[in-house]
Amino acid sequence: MPGRKRATLATVAETAGVSLPTVSKVLNGRTDVAAETRTRVESALRELGYVPQNGRRTLAPSRVVDAVFDDLVSPYTLEVLRGVTDAGAELGIDVVVGRMPTPDPGGPLNPEDHWAQRLKSNDRSGLIVVTSELSLAQVESFENAGLPLVVIDPLNPPRAEVTSVGATNWSGGVTATEHLLSLGHRRIAFAGGPLEASCSQARLHGYRAALENAGVPFDPDLVRHGEFDHPDGLAMGERLLALAEPPTAVFAANDATALGVLEAARRRGLRVPQDLSVVGFDDTMLARLATPPLTVIRQPLNDMGRVAVRTLLKLITGDTLDSHHVELATQLVVRESTGPAPDEGAR
């Protein structure tokens, strides 16, 4: 019996009842295709067993990707997740949300390989990992399993070939500090994230660069590190405000940390911004609901999620990336938590 004739784009288009350009758009992950039309084209592709002549991969039939987080309930996570799921809906991709697996002493000898193979056996097309620390073994296990990977705002700097999406953390640190300097502050503290977090380090370096450019000496006593959360923000704020020469302003490395600093100021009877100015980083709902509302460096968290999905789709379909690392611009949003530096002796 003669072998089955190789399917072409023309036969796919005829079977699906669409034009050739529409089939091409579906294969390339374009968004300007109606969901019902996309479904018909994908059904035709599977039915005919279409294989591109250039050998490029098409999407897996399931069109399912995993989005993995360290923390599923933080305002940061919710903003990123909304971008990921919105982009998935637009592109006809199902997103399975989960948490980073925790080590299991009684588990497999090679948990990284087990995780990658489990995703592969569940017909996942790719993986997005958000604000987590990836080990070299994990990255290699995804490569060996043929699972495309995109990381968003990784805690540790990934290998050069690992595709990542982030924000302009260094310039955000510069902008936040310059804003406080412009208000007359010179005793400006930095309440940062974990020492190993590359995003926090970049914000710290931006802070130091702005001080240096303004001719303000760097004081290591004004720098503290902790987790990106309210309790550590409170602890850092209390230690900074207890100094013999306390700061008149604090640049916090995220919104939750900034809220902790606000609470520390409240407990000491300090007014914000009359006695202490505070700048956050992210612009989550926490910043807008704070009392007073937070001045922040806004990260485009929703867009970061969207870009990660679109970038992953390019990796899945074999497209060439312009860059393995994408940084989206941050911007200063001035609200009520920053004001002129208090007069000397006023506190």
Characterize the main sheet: 6 strands, parallel
The end-to-end distance, rounded to whole angstroms, is: 93 Å
Q: What are the segments in which pLDDT stays under 50 over at least 5 consecutive residues?
A: none
> How would you classify the quaternary structure?
single chain
Shape field: elongated
Major beta sheet, strand line-up: 2-1-3-4-5-11
Structural class label = alpha/beta
Radius of gyration: 24 Å
Helix and strand run: HHHEHEHEHEEHEHEHEHEHEHEE
Strand content: 15-25%
Total E-strand runs: 12
Helix content: 40-55%
Average pLDDT score: 86
Number of helices: 12
Structural account:
- With about 350 residues, this protein is α/β, with parallel strands linked by helices.
- About 40% of the residues lie in helices and about 15% in strands.
- It is built from twelve helices and twelve strands.
- The protein has helices spanning about 10-15, 20-25, 35-50, 75-90, 110-120, 135-145, 170-180, 200-215, 230-240, 255-265, 285-290, 300-315; strands spanning about 65-70, 95-100, 125-130, 150, 165, 190, 225, 250, 275-280, 295-300, 325-330, 330-335.
- Strands 2-1-3-4-5-11 form a six-stranded parallel beta sheet, sandwiched between helices.
- Helix 6 links the parallel strand 3 (about 125-130) and strand 4.
- Helix 4 crosses helix 12.
- The longest helix is centred in the N-terminal third of the chain and has 17 residues, at about 75-90.
- The radius of gyration is 24 Å and the shape is elongated.
- The relative contact order is 0.13.
- The model has no long low-confidence stretch (mean pLDDT about 85).
